[in-house]
Every structure is written in C-alpha cells, then in structure tokens.
Amino acid sequence: MTPRAKGILSITASAFGFALMAFFVRLCDDFGDGISCFQKSFFRNVIAFAIAFSVLAAERRHGRTTRFGGNRGKALLHLLLRSIFGTIGIFANFYALSRIPIGEAMMLNKTAPFFTVLFSWMFIGEKVSARQAAVLAVAFVGAAFVVKPGFGGGLPSLVALAGGLGAGAAYSSVHILGKMGFDSAKTVLFFSAFSCLSSIPPAAASYVPMTAAQTAILALAGCGAAIGQFGVTAAYRYAEPRSIAVYDYTNVVFTSLFGFFFFDQIPDALSLVGFVVIFSAAVFAVRGNGRNMV
To answer: Whole-prediction pTM value?
Structure first.
C-alpha cells in the first residue's frame, strides 16, 4: 500500500472518529443539565490521554517506539502550535455543537482542510495546484448541499468557523511533525495533556455536576476523539495535506448517517446530491493522482 493510500484510509478513519465524538458531545446535553464546552473538553481529553498513554506504553514494551533524531527545538515548537490551535479548535467546536444544528457546526468545522492547505503553503512552502484547489472547492460545495447551512447562527457560527481555522492550523503542524519522524502516540499524548490542563481553570469555574449517563457519553466521545486524533496524526504523517484533505469531508457523510439512524433524520434530495458531489471530488482527486496532478 502506498503512503498516500495509507493517508486516505487514516483520514477517513479520523473523520469517522470525529463524527462519533460530535454525536456523543451533542447527545450529552439530552441526559442532564447543560455543561460547558470546557468541561466537555476536559473529560473528552482525559479519555484520549489515557488511550494515547496506553498505546505509547505498549510500543515501549515491544520496542516499537520511534527514536526521534531531528530538530528537537522545531519539534517542540510544532507540538506547542499543534496543541494551542487544536485546543482552540476543540473549545470552539464544542461550544458550537451545543448552540447550532450539528450539521451546520460540522460544516463550518470542515473548513479545516482549506486552512491546513493554506498554512502548509504559508509555513512549509508546499505548492497547491489549480486542480487541487478545485477539488477542495467542489468538496466544500458538496458538503454545503448536505448540511444546507443558513449561516444565521450569529456568534456560534463565527465561533464554529474559528474552530475550523484552529483545527487547520493544528493539522499543518501535525504534518510537519510527521515529516520529521515524530511518533504519533507522543503527539496525541502531548496534545491531550495540554488540552486537559488548559480546560481545568474554565471548567472548574463553570462546573456542573454530571449524571452517570453524561459521564458515560463523554467517555464514548473521548474514544471517538482518540480515533480521530490517531487517524489524522497518521494521515498527515503518511501524505501531503493537499493530496488527502478532500477525504476529510467524509465526516459530513458520517454525521448525516448518524442523524438518520439515531435521530430519524432522512437525507433529502439536496443531501443526496451532496453525497454524490463529495464522492465525485474524491474520485477526481484519485484519478488526478495517477497523472501526478494531485
């Protein structure tokens, strides 16, 4: 399997994991009093931290950890950037998920691939062809068909968009760390620890006691987040952001399917058109890669 194929599989798995996370974060509000995005973030990241720690410990026991021999100062810088922007993205996304429809929130969050490609171009000089830009634009249009955002959410919509920017900036640093050979589990572990610590002060200030159901649901959200984090970390380790970013839009498809099976939300004609457009963009990207154009 080629590195790009591994990147595509990883980014698709990541999209599924983050769709699970969004579903459980929103579901949490239906089983008790509303809790803040900071409190949700803390419990979500505690689970992700525990999973990353377990994976790293298992790798060490079997002697499979990667010995990092690159520029440690540069690695630390991008670990911090990944953690800072990623934490901003989480806070913004969780805030939006509780205040606007889940489809609209995820649509705005899915501007992240645009920002990833933009920041990769700005900071590491990766070229973006007209074809690649067109594929991303087509995928964005397809996602818009699926969720049909009205963009009338005011501040929550703007916050959701800021979450997409934060995630995009974070993923560009993930890609750089991957190219440097930095271990994926260490990246997830550092980010999860940073996000947990960052969320403690605001979560403590606005703490609301949780029901047993809310605790279990947020634990499941943490598992979904761990799948998403490991997936995206692996994806941008294997492949260039510009060549696989379009596949992150499968998150919109997964989110819509969760809505159908769990909330009786039947996709309408526009949503079905969106599915076709998204998958057409993916096929177009794959064919272009065969001609060294993606």
So the answer is: 0.78
pLDDT in tens, 31-72: 988 899 999 999 888 988 888 888 888 877 776 655 555 678
**Rounded Cα distance, 175 and 164, in Å:** 16
* Greatest CA separation for the chain: 56
- Which of 106-110, 142-146, 263-267 is predicted with the least confidence, judged by mean pLDDT? 263-267
